[in-house]
Automatic annotation (TrEMBL), chain A:
Protein name (database record): TAFII28-like protein domain
Compositionally biased residues, Basic and acidic residues: 1-10
Bias kind Acidic residues: ranges: 77-87
Keyword Kinase included in the entry's annotation: no
Bias type Polar residues, positions: 54-67
GO biological process: RNA polymerase II preinitiation complex assembly
Keyword terms: Activator, Nucleus, Transcription, Transcription regulation
UniProtKB/TrEMBL annotation, chain B:
Family the entry assigns: Belongs to the TAF13 family.
Species of the source: Dillenia turbinata
Positions of the UniProt region annotated as Disordered: 1-26
Keyword Ribonucleoprotein: no
Keywords (A to Z) from UniProt: Nucleus, Transcription, Transcription regulation
GO biological process terms, semicolon-separated: transcription by RNA polymerase II
InterPro entries from the UniProt entry: Histone-fold (IPR009072), TFIID_TAF13 (IPR003195)
SUPFAM superfamilies the UniProt entry points to: Histone-fold
GO cellular component, one term: nucleus
Bias-annotated ranges (Polar residues): 1-22
Protein name: Transcription initiation factor TFIID subunit 13
Gene Ontology molecular functions: protein heterodimerization activity
Subcellular location: Nucleus
Length: 210, 128
């Protein structure tokens, strides 16, 4: 379905899967400042509650219609994510700037079914919690000095990695003609394949004390 | 390659003597909620199986750990671990690299915007 790295029309619009929220703190502060700079995204839909820092989307404004409609959903993640990310989303509008891409995205999005739209929204909104990621990084490095950009980068990389895993797992499922939710065996096979492709860093020292 | 063990997992400490408030043990399900939404976004069911989510979480943590260790290897020459080290690691992986540069530049933009906003606010405050 949602494909980040294939010849889909999606590829045209984004280069890579979404990733976690970039900016933390203030938001409302941001919204006005950034909204002003938005280049002619007339879309009233520049809904601040939009999606977290996800793929380069020129479609931010357009999507927000879908999003606001979906606001009544049960996804509580929205609360935290949107706070953190709405400014990011807005800022993305001016920077992506390519009217062509934007137009294409809008065309694609307009044709989404509800299910597709909901999935796309999850794709855009989801991300790793900065605090959790930071905690993890601190525990791995043993040092307290983890900068915010580093958390952002690692979260982004991790999200794309999850995408690769899930997509490969789906491919495995189709090969086996399996249906339903993804099962651990599919994920393991997917992981094995990714390793073969060299997308997973190899450990030079084996993991002893799991 | 069985990653799922019961309850908590102890991670070997690498040369740090910090009484970590964070983790000696890695709690399960730290990323569970985020992962569920993420997996749905990427193509899984609306409600992914819990065991699948747990497995993916393990894999991701292992992936991040390995990445960080590798980055630290590069960084050890310089001393500090920098963002550039991660970027160097993924240099061959174009989607990731592009995404990261995009995120970083957006972050910069936001910082600028924030600064500008603060300056304005001061002006307004001083006017009162």
């Amino acid at each position: 379905m949602t494909n980040k790295q294939s010849k889909d029309p999606f590829e045209v619009a984004f280069e890579s899967p979404p990733d976690s929220p970039i900016s933390p703190d203030e938001n409302e502060a941001q919204a006005p400042a950034v909204a002003i700079t938005s280049d002619g995204q007339e879309d009233d839909d520049v809904n601040p509650n939009f999606l977290p820092a996800n793929p380069s989307t020129s479609t931010a404004p357009l999507i927000s219609t879908g999003v606001t409609a979906a606001a009544g959903k049960t996804k509580e993640e929205e609360e935290e994510e949107e706070e953190e990310n709405m400014d990011v989303e807005l800022s993305k509008v001016p920077s992506s700037g390519d009217p062509d891409k934007m137009a294409k995205m809008q065309a694609i999005l307009a044709q989404f079914t509800e299910e597709q739209m909901s999935r796309y929204e999850s794709f855009r909104r989801s991300g790793f919690q900065k605090s959790n990621m930071k905690r993890l990084l601190v525990s791995i490095t043993g040092s307290q000095k983890i900068s915010v950009p580093m958390t952002i980068v690692v979260s982004g990389i991790a999200k794309i990695f999850v995408g690769e895993l899930v997509e490969t797992a789906r491919v495995v499922m189709t090969e086996r003609n399996d249906l339903g939710p993804i099962r651990p065996c599919h994920v393991r096979e997917a992981y094995r394949r990714l390793k073969l492709e060299g997308k997973v860093p190899k450990r030079s020292v084996s993991r002893l004390f799991r | 390659m069985n990653t799922s063990s019961a309850g908590t997992t102890s991670k070997p400490r690498v040369g740090s003597s910090q009484p970590s408030d964070t983790t000696f043990k890695r709690k399960r399900g730290v990323f569970q909620k985020d992962l569920q939404h993420m997996m749905y976004g990427f193509g899984d069911d609306r409600n992914p199986l819990p065991e699948t989510v747990a497995l993916v979480e393990d894999i991701v943590v292992e992936y991040v750990t390995d990445m960080v260790h590798k980055a630290q290897e590069f960084a050890s020459k310089r001393g500090k671990l920098l963002t550039e080290d991660f970027l160097y690691l993924i240099r061959k992986d174009h989607p990731k690299l592009n995404r990261c540069t995009e995120l970083l530049s957006m972050n910069e933009e936001l910082k600028q915007a924030r600064k500008a906003f603060e300056v304005d606010e001061e002006k307004l405050a001083s006017l009162d």
